[in-house]
Amino acid sequence: MAQIPAAFHDLLKTPGMATLTTNGPDGYPQSTALWYHFDGEVIRLVMQATTQKAKNLQRDPRCSFILIDPADSHHVIEVRADAELTIEQGEDYPLANMIVGHYGSSMANMSNPGAPRVIATLRPVRVNTVG
Q: What is this structure's pTM?
C-alpha cells in the first residue's frame, strides 16, 4: 500500500470537497464531488448503496480521489486506490454521522437519510502530489 505523505495530512483532515472518479459500466469515467474522512492512513467515504459510484466500485474497485487545497490551487493530492466496500452497520450510521458532523451538518440534512449506506475504504496504490 502506498503512503500518503505527512505534508498532506493536514489538508486531508480539514473539511473539503474532493472528487472521486470511478469506472462506469460503459467504460467512461464517472466523477462525483463528495465529503470524506482521513484517519492518517486511509480515506473513507460513505455513500448510499444504490448510487452509481457505489455500483461502479462494486464492479471495479479501482478509483481515483483528488483534493485541491481551496487556499492554494498548487497544493493538490491525487490518490489512486483500490476501494474496499463494507455495509455501514447500525441504524444510526456512525461513520456517516461522523463525516457529516465534521462538515457541520447532520444525516437529517442528507438525501434519503435512512437509505442503506456503504463505506468505501480507499487503500492507496499510488499517490501523486503537487506543492
A: 0.89
Which pairs from 47-54 meet CB under 8 Å and 24+ separation? 47/117, 47/118, 47/120, 48/111, 48/112, 48/115, 48/116, 48/117, 48/118, 49/87, 49/115, 49/116, 49/117, 49/118, 50/115, 50/116, 52/22, 52/24, 53/20, 53/22, 54/85, 54/118, 54/120
- The verdict on residue 1 lying in a domain is no
CATH number at residue 95: 2.30.110.10
Q: What is the DSSP letter of 58?
A: H
Q: Range of 60's domain? A: 6-130
73 within some domain: yes
pLDDT reading at 94 higher than 90 = no
Q: What is the pLDDT of residue 90?
A: 66
Domain contains 12: yes
Split into its structural domains, the chain has a count of 1
Q: How confident is the model at residue 104 (pLDDT cuts 50, 70, 90)?
A: confident
* pLDDT tens per residue across span 110-120: 667 667 889 99
